[in-house]
Amino acid sequence: MLRVSGMGRVGLAWAALWGSVAVSCAWADTIVMTNGDRLSGEVLLMDGGTLVLNTDYAGEIRISWDKVAQLQTSDTMLMRAKVLPAEYEARLASSGQPGSVAALRPEEAMDASDPDQVALADIERMVRPHAFLRDWSFEGGIDMALDATHASKRNQNWIAAMHATARRDGWRHGVELDYTRKTQDSVVGTYNYNAAYMIDRFLSEKLFVRGRLRYGSDRVDNPARQLVFAAGPGYQFWDDELGAFSVSTFLTHTRYKYHDHTHDNFQTAGLGWNFTRYLAGKQWQVFTTGEVHRAFGGATDYSLEAELGLRYSVTQWMSLYAKAGYDHITMSGKPSTDERRYSVGLGVHW
């Protein structure tokens, strides 16, 4: 006769529980609400007291965290709680008690006899880590702001920007386009457009090397044309469902053409940043990007380009945004260029 000790019975119970969870969650995560309702989908994150669940029947839905009684996930989640160590990753299963979950860490997969039990109220943040991508992943968006006033003065402002990113394995490709045209009584005050392509090669999960090509045209201010080649290392501090933050340094070769048809070539050292953070269950987004350059001689002493914005998600694919941008170029022997941009408009993202 086979005898099972007390600890063995506990192990078998947890193994059976985890087996049933694995079967039930093979295709989706499961949430049990405090009123007994069940929801299935893919848990993206929990932050600021809001859980975001991606479903194939209603898109992304937001759930108040205090209305969740039980939670099961088919994949590992990265969690933060005062009772847990830093960088804690675990799959979540029902503990059998409302208001708590059983956390099975990857290294415990072969021994489920003693999983951690965590109260849902103790979990401050939870996010799905980005896996190493074997297939292509695409994301991007378009922002547009159009404004026309016909009164004692006729003002027309046209602003549009597009960005797209594709990633696979250790490669990341990015494209950026922007267009600005402002007129008053048929007099053009601002008229420029820029296009850029970048490619990143990740040497590790966070360290990458970037190459970039950028072209810019300005019909009003100097320089009239810009062509910039840049390369250098960068570091991705984080990139997950809550946002991303990266810093890159680079050396550039820059070619300027002015409205008087003169030319200038020079080299610079630069620092760039890209930060985005989602708040209130991805309802709000704060973002900023920018670059600062210092020239090694030539016509330009230094330059700064920065943008700060706030975005509000109206639907899963549409948002309202407000942006403020600033460009400054200090040039030797020519007037410095200062441009401030403010826009409020509609965004479409995917």
Q: For the record, what CATH class of the largest domain applies?
A: Mainly Beta
Which structural category fits the helices and strands? mainly beta
Q: How would you spell out the order of helices and strands?
A: HEEEEEEEEEEEEEEEEEEEEEE
Q: From the alpha-carbon coordinates, what is the Rg to the nearest angstrom?
A: 26 Å
What is the average of the pLDDT values? 84
Indicate the low-confidence ranges by residue numbers.
1-27
At the fold tier of CATH, the topology name of the largest domain is: Porin
CATH homologous superfamily of the largest domain, by name?
monomeric porin ompg
How many structural domains? Answer: 2
State which percent range the strand residues make up: over 45%
Largest sheet: 12 strands, antiparallel, barrel
Helicity level = under 10%
Basic shape? elongated
Distance between the termini: 60 Å
What's the total number of strands?
22
What is the number of helical segments per DSSP (H or I, 4+ residues)? 1
Strand order of the largest sheet: 11-12-13-14-15-16-17-18-19-20-21-22
